[in-house]
Amino acid sequence: MSRSADVAVIGSGVAGSLIAWKLSQQGRRVVIFESGPTRSRQQLYQGYLKKGNDHFYPPVPEVFNALTEAEESEKAFQYFNVLRLAGGTTWHWGGTCLRFVEDDFELKSRYGVGVDWPISYQEILPYYREAEKELGVSGDFPESLPHTSPTYCDKRFVAAGERVGMPMTHMPIARLRDSYDGRPGCAGFNNCWPICPTGAHYAAIVHLEKAMAAGAELRPEALVTQLKEGRKGKIETLTYRNAAGESHDFRASQFILAANGVENVRLLMLSKLASKSNALGHYLMTHPGGEVFFHANEPLYSGRGPRTGYGYFGLTSGAHRSEDASGYFNVSNVIDPVRDLADLEAKGFLGKAFGDAFYERIIHQAKMYLSVEQLPEYKNHLRLDFDQKDITGLPKLVAFCPTDSYSERGLTQMKRSALKLAEAMGCKDFQYSTKTDESHIMGATRMGTDEVESVVDPNCCSHEHRNLFVLGGSVFPTGSCVNPTLTIAALTLRLARHFK
């Protein structure tokens, strides 16, 4: 087992696997450190079938919670589940691959809120296209792969949107209609998450396997606990702990931290790096959101075909962003039997009457998920909590990231839009609940040109340590309202092109 490499990559999710593959193709000696074990798709799927719906994810220790239960004022997230597993959390993601819009990169210049990115939409555009090709994204751009056929539920939402002037468009999803790049087309199991049983739905294991085929070494169950600074401000070694609990040092010429928005921050803090920056751990963002549930006045037959197909994007850009957050919502093609079962039971339904009423309710069910942006604010932060440890023995992080008034106003607008669409479908029982997406952790190692107000430069290189790079949502200066994975992949491919 080697003790050194040209490049050490920490994390094997979408960013880590993509960069390892690209750099291995360039002839560099790359070693990937993954804190979790390796598992096959079949092992994960069988594990889910045995576990049932108790939890979307496999049992501990492959899932961990890096965030502590803090005081009420600091409870930004009540949980934050991330897979410690080769291939990362994309084994169990929804697959949504939306591009940021041009507004997102110039929020301060155009609307006087937030900050501008140090790179433009035009600079990242070719890498969006490359990322869509690599992940196998089906969408509506000319270069996109063909998307899966709309379900009956999708068609009814599209028709309702047309009646009220709310055009519903196909969601770009890393899910294939036809065979592509060794992956099969979607079989319509309605099991995109917790795990796609066939591989039509993208997971980073695709590029992890490509990286290893190109010469990269994967070191599973190798938890990196520290990065050590050497001469002239460069990182010289990392320390990792193997499955037996033994600690080892590893040397590399360059280090790439790609361990997700929480772990990136924790490792830098534990290593006492980026100490000159005021930004490390600050400007934390996520995606405040909500869930809409109702029964339509016609059958929708949700639960057949892919879980997500269409969405509404009418408020993702525009002058309203000077006052309230951008937002979008998507249609969920998933039934929620528990909600109706509980209600019918409470109302005393029994026997055949119960079965008939339950069936009638299920086929009319409709659900939408709302997402809005959150502005970067210094007060929103992550900090180490040395009094509480996660399952690895490392200190947990306390998160402070309350939903601000800007996001609340955006949610109000999105809720009105969702209600308008629901009413067009004959809704009489509109139900709304707040739901923050704890998996979209962004901003706490943000990029910029000011070495004090940011952690990395526009090429994701640490200002203080010029052989250390950071990848993931943590480098985002602003978070948009859309899912971050495609932008993470695009920034990763951009770094691979400029890597020296």
Short description:
The protein has 500 residues and is an alpha+beta fold. The chain has helices at residues 14-25, 41-51, 102-105, 107-111, 121-135, 152-163, 205-213, 263-270, 337-346, 351-364, 405-424, 485-498; strands spanning 4-10, 30-33, 63-65, 81-83, 168-170, 217-219, 223-229, 235-241, 247-257, 285-287, 289-295, 308-315, 327-332, 365-372, 381-389, 395-400, 431-434, 437-442, 468-470. Strands 1, 2, 6, 7, 8, 9 and 19 form a seven-stranded mixed sheet that branches.
Rounded mean pLDDT score: 91
Low-confidence stretches: 58-63, 69-79
Topology, number of strands: 19
**First-to-last CA distance:** 26 Å
Rough outline: globular
The percent range for strand residues is 15-25%
**Helical amount:** 25-40%
**Helix count, DSSP H or I runs of 4 or more residues:** 12
Report the C-alpha radius of gyration, rounded: 23 Å
The main β sheet shows up as: 7 strands, mixed
Structural class: alpha+beta
Task: Give structural notes.
The chain is built from 12 helices and 19 strands. Strands 1, 2, 6, 7, 8, 9 and 19 form a 7-stranded mixed beta sheet that branches. The protein has helices at residues 14-25, 41-51, 102-105, 107-111, 121-135, 152-163, 205-213, 263-270, 337-346, 351-364, 405-424, 485-498; strands spanning 4-10, 30-33, 63-65, 81-83, 168-170, 217-219, 223-229, 235-241, 247-257, 285-287, 289-295, 308-315, 327-332, 365-372, 381-389, 395-400, 431-434, 437-442, 468-470. It is of the alpha+beta class. The radius of gyration is 23 Å and the shape is globular.
